[in-house]
Design brief:
This protein is 39% helix and 16% strand. The protein has 289 residues and is an alpha+beta fold. Helix 3 crosses helix 4 and helix 4 packs across helix 5. The longest helix is centred in the N-terminal third of the chain and has 20 residues.
Length: 289
């Protein structure tokens, strides 16, 4: 290739890059890496998993993430815009639950391609299944369960397990606005989050106190989604994971902040929750076929 042609080619590439960036096609190498890892994982599961009940698929998919590093804050890397963040190589407790559920639902549907993954991720992560901005993300896990119950994805079984009223108002985000980059200097978003919290507080919210957890073990199933309630003022759920049954015992499969990885708890659920004085009980959502 002569120098003139090389120069022309480089000019064309530069112009094309500017156009793509202006249209929003500005993925970073990290984004591309996560997409590649996601595509690879989608192809890694045995087709026979499709024949298992959904809760058992969740158990197998969840175990495939064991050892994945705990990484917090991955959904807030773009403070000026609400992106559909894809990250399967570093998970916090909520993104672990989301990804294990999404992969499992895709396996059951037989639609394990990346485009369907993105659609499923938006469906589960955002209010009404649509990303319309920061406040449409289901930040509070109580709200996550409520909205995904409306979509027919899960059912909140806490009341039928003998749950009692949580007895507190949920307002942690607005009362700690300086802890959230998006809310700190944006009164419009703050107002939207006030509305979200008001909607949450208009509902009846139930939880199973810690002292009653072991009495419902026999009614819990592997793959049930667990939200661990907290005594922290204004906050609903401090941690999430899945029920994992083995050898007649009931464990928590989760992305552990303490141990910095996805794991199955070394002690049963009740004892695990007793290990943190700020943890007060659980809410339970059952995934629906």
């Amino acid at each position: 290739m002569n120098l003139l042609n090389r120069h022309n080619l480089l000019s064309i590439i530069t112009i094309a890059s500017v156009i793509l960036f202006s249209l929003g096609f500005n993925s970073s190498p990290a984004d591309d890496y996560e997409e590649m890892k996601c595509r690879k994982k989608l192809k890694s599961f045995d087709a026979s998993l499709k024949n298992l009940p959904l809760n058992d698929v969740i158990a197998e998919v969840g175990k495939s993430f064991i050892g994945t590093p705990y990484v917090a804050g991955t959904l807030d890397e773009y403070p000026n815009t609400e992106e559909l963040v894809i990250n399967v190589t570093g998970l916090d407790c909520v993104t672990f639950v989301e990804n294990a559920l999404i992969f499992s639902r895709l396996i059951k549907s037989g639609k394990t391609d990346f485009d369907n993954y993105k659609k499923e991720l938006e469906l589960i992560r955002y209010r009404g299944g649509k990303n319309t901005g920061y406040s449409s993300r289901l930040h509070y896990f109580i709200d996550w369960i409520y909205d995904n119950e409306k979509k027919g994805i899960v059912k909140d079984i806490t009341p039928e397990l003998g749950g009692v009223s949580i007895g507190k108002d949920i307002d942690f985000m607005t009362s700690h606005r300086n802890s959230y980059k998006q809310l700190k200097n944006n009164d419009i978003l703050l107002g939207e989050m006030y509305e979200v919290e008001n909607n949450i507080n208009s509902r009846d919210i139930y939880y199973i106190p810690t002292e009653n957890i072991s009495s419902v073990y026999d009614r819990l199933q592997t793959g049930d989604i667990v939200g661990i309630t907290t005594s922290i003022g204004g906050l609903d759920i401090a941690h999430t994971g899945f029920i994992y049954k083995e050898g007649g015992s009931t464990y928590l499969m989760h992305a552990s902040l303490k141990n910095k990885k996805v794991e199955i708890s070394g002690m049963e659920l009740h004892d695990y929750i007793m290990g943190n004085s700020k943890q007060t009980g659980i809410v339970v959502a059952r995934v629906l076929e």
